[in-house]
Design a protein that fits this description.
The chain is of the alpha/beta class. It folds into 2 domains: 214 residues, 3-Layer(aba) Sandwich (Rossmann fold), CATH 3.40.50; 95 residues, no CATH class. The protein has a 6-stranded mixed sheet. A 6-stranded mixed sheet has the order 7-8-11-10-9-12. A hairpin with a 2-residue loop joins strand 5 and strand 6. Helix 2 crosses helix 7 and helix 5 crosses helix 8. The longest helix has 29 residues.
Length: 341
């Protein structure tokens, strides 16, 4: 059971925000978030609104969204019903529905206030499930760290204040308040990988890979990720010779002695700084391996990665925007060329 004082502590990370958009689907987790926000001592000092996304993927979803609108209104919250319009994809439906959902929520949050965050009800069980899902896909340290309490997605700011709370405790908030909630039938559809993994939970727990072990793994990975990010940022700063406009020049000798993980992170940071679309992690890994090998061999090379042109010679490693496909390139000294796209 969540006591009033523990509920206040959970929402304390939101206290500096002037406006908040609660993402409420109608399930027990998000309804609990809405109930906690309704009782929050700082509620009257904030602009708190609620949004529900109707993906239009199954019959009755519109009625469910309207039900959430009624609940929000009864608690005194303004409600936004957001619809995913148009033809729906036939493949990767959960991934694309997620992208559409956060796109709609992000646009709604910006209408409320320029930097209004989206507050979600992701909880400890979601976190353990996310870590397991990423583990099965061979994720790196950053992926195994799980979801962050604060992050950005497509320009939208996401806050997850309930990550340390078990799902059962959130369901208890609804039961204690006598408040109904909805159950999404897709959570039992074994066509989805996460549902199949959920069905293995008892077997995995018997083998020592239950929720507590996964959360422990996530905490350790998060600690390692923070250390790697800290060290890689400083290594990149130390190796940087010049940055002007769209050109970044690094000392090849300084890069040569760095671990490949640092090279990967330096490349990723430069891609992000330019606002380019991040490549798939596997492509970034391959490119950083090539960069590391060429730095160690001293061989000159040009590589293209995610709109970034990387030119390496024995003295300098230069990163500039790649020319558009099909553009005529100025004559340059002959170099081995490796395209990584």
């Amino acid at each position: 059971m969540l006591t009033p004082s523990s509920a206040e502590a959970l929402l304390a990370p939101l206290s500096e925000e002037e406006a908040l958009l609660l993402a409420v689907s109608g399930g027990p987790d998000s309804v609990a978030l809405m109930l906690l926000a309704a009782r929050w001592s700082l509620r009257r000092a904030k602009r708190i609104e609620v949004a529900t996304v109707d993906h239009g993927l199954r019959p009755g979803s519109d009625d469910e969204a309207r039900q959430v609108a009624d609940w929000a209104g009864a608690l005194g919250f303004a409600h936004h019903l957001l619809r995913w319009e148009g033809a729906k994809p036939q493949t990767r439906i959960q991934e694309r529905a997620r992208d559409a959902r956060y796109g709609l929520l992000g646009a709604c949050a910006r209408e409320i206030a320029p930097d209004c965050p989206i507050v979600t009800a992701h909880h400890a069980d979601d976190q353990a499930e996310t870590i397991l899902f990423r583990l099965t896909r061979g994720s790196g340290v950053a992926g195994l760290a799980g979801m962050a309490q604060s992050s950005r997605l497509g320009g939208a700011r996401l806050l997850r204040p309930l990550l340390g709370v078990a799902k059962a405790r959130l369901a208890a908030v609804c039961h204690d308040a006598g408040h109904p909630f909805l159950l999404d039938p897709s959570n039992r559809n074994e066509a989805f990988a996460r549902v199949r993994l959920r069905g293995l939970s008892e077997t995995l727990s018997r083998q020592g890979l239950g929720a507590s072990a996964l959360l422990r793994l996530g905490a350790r990975a998060r600690r390692a990720e923070e250390a790697l990010r800290f060290a890689a940022e400083r290594a990149g700063e130390a190796a940087l010779l010049q940055r002007d406009g769209e050109r970044s020049v690094f000392d090849s000798a300084a890069l040569r002695i760095l671990p490949e993980e640092f090279l990967l992170r330096i490349l990723a940071a430069d891609i992000a700084r330019r606002g380019l679309t991040a490549p798939r992690f596997e492509r970034l890994e391959r490119a950083s391996a090539i960069v590391g090998a060429r730095l160690r061999s001293g061989a000159a090379v040009r590589i293209t990665l995610a709109g970034l042109a990387i030119r390496i010679d024995d003295r300098e490693t230069t990163l500039t925007p790649a020319p558009p496909r099909g553009a005529v390139r100025a004559k340059a000294p002959p170099l081995e060329k490796h395209e990584e796209k």
